User: What shape does this take?
Amino acid sequence: MTETHPAAADGPRHDIRFDETSGAVTIGAGKVVESEFASVAIKLDQDGNSVRLRVEDLRTGRVRFLDALELESLVWLGEGHLTQLLDPSHERWRG
Amino acid sequence: MTAVVPSESEVQEGGSRYDRLIQPARVHGTLYTDPSIFAEELRKIWHKTWVFVGHESEVPQVNDYVRKQLADQDVVMTRDKEGEVHLLINRCAHRGLQVCDDKAGNSSSFRCPYHGWTYRNTGELLGYPYNKGYGGKKQLPLGMGKVARVASYQGFVFGSLAAEGQSLEDHLGAAKGEIDRLVGLSPEGKVSLDAGWLRHKTRSNWKFLAENETDGYHPQFVHGSIFGVTGSPIGELYSDNSTAVTRNLGDGHSENDLRPEFRGFAEPMRWFGTTPDRVPNYVAAMKEAHGEDADRLMIEGAPHVMIFPNLFIAEIQVFNIQPVAVGECVQYATAVQFDGGHELNMRMVSQSIGSVGPAGMLLADDTEMYERNQRGVAMADPEWLDVRRGLHRESVDEDGFTIGTATDETGMRGFWNHYKSLMEAED
Ligand code: FES
Ligand SMILES: [Fe+2]
Assistant: This one.
């Protein structure tokens, strides 16, 4: 059997194209950070006064920018905090 | 530096110190050389009134920041996550360290390199390491310093280090209309100052620059070479035959109003030294945006206005003057960019490079004058600088402003009047 699904080390699977003018994202064959549970496009954004990471939830289109200090803080986030973030009632479905 | 004290005969009895040093037709040389006057200016002008700091377009994205100077204060202009612009004083609340080092960046928060205290880009203290030393988290009622009041007009951001005082709009007064004129030349009704600032250090007192900005007497001499090389007709607008006027706009603001001349020619884009056929897209965009009024706007052109104490709009460039010491200041310059005026913007950038860039001709000419001026006023005799030109032929225009001819020192006299009122005020 031919192996088509990527090993984790291959990185993103989809080729993401950002339309600079409309801000839209198109996904070709290729690269994205994705699992059966979530699908997220990542891009280094240069529009600000220094580079940021642009993270887009491809299922909702919601976008968040993360600056270097925020990203560094994420790396150091304790498991407990991360778990708390994953709790669906913590932020997203609080109602 | 030796301060030259007015001689007995020149001291008018009874008046304040500034009454003696600032008279209707002359000002005393020590105003430019006395360190104690400079220290008083910092307190009474730079730390009190509204000072131009930068433009909102320099922090276009949420969490963008740029470092700025407000006289002797290192200031960080930030845009928070709600889009609001702040002016933080670049000083850590712990041990006073300068928190930001880069000239610009994008970050929601700032972490001081000394002990890791971290602040939101609104200045609020977010946290500090090893918090048990302070009895836990969120125990310290501290934050980065802030410029007490921040306000903007047409995207021009001003700060005042005094918590109380007149509003920015009141301070700008009649100068608001000049800023509006500039913005009116944008097809989208907006200017940006995002082309980057050139930084020029000048070994001169800041007031020589402020006074010179609307001195219509010097261009033919100081800028004769650039006018000659470029064949510019601007020089003639500053002569005895010109219908242009120098206007004291009040509150220390002044302008050279060249509109009477341009109205006479009635040629759109002449103010920019070009013709409509050379910038067809811009002209079309202006007509689309302003309809019938477009021709008038493009005939009258951009303002030449000095807004007290440090914002100078010179048609296609904006200057930001900040004092460093009694004999030193820094002048920042950038090309105006009209939103929706791409075609003109590129020309404004290249013209700015030619006039105020490192090899530019206009600013180098002026700087040579400022520096020689500074060296000259350190000399003992004569003690005074003369500002009487046109005093006998001033008149009042239909709006009640004092005006002189294109080459008169009306703007300077307006500057000194206002300066005196600020310096005489209680600390
Ligand atoms: S001086 Fe800034 S954390 Fe100590
Ligand atoms: Fe000049």
Observations:
- Residues B 92, 94-95, 97, 112, 114-117 surround FE2/S2 (inorganic) cluster (ligand 1) (CB under 6 Å).
- Residues 68-75 of chain A form the longest helix (8 residues).
- Confidence is low (pLDDT under 50) at residues 1-12 of chain A.
